[in-house]
Input
Amino acid sequence: MTPNRLEEIQKATAYPDSQSVKLALFTVWSETERHITTRAGGVITALEAQVEQQKIEIKRLENLVQGRDIDGVLIPGKPLRQL
Output
């Protein structure tokens, strides 16, 4: 929703200069913005979690290639390889 669209809606009402109409439209605008911000924050949080999971997986694979266990401790008898 854009400010121009809100203005169109306001003009289409029976009382476009009414304070209650203006307040109602402002409330809708505020709630829409808050919803968009909250939703974007959730998406960002989910992406950050995926990035962290990818970092953990990369570390696990690096340890595996180097012959190390999940804690990064060298496994006896496993040859070390350069990355």
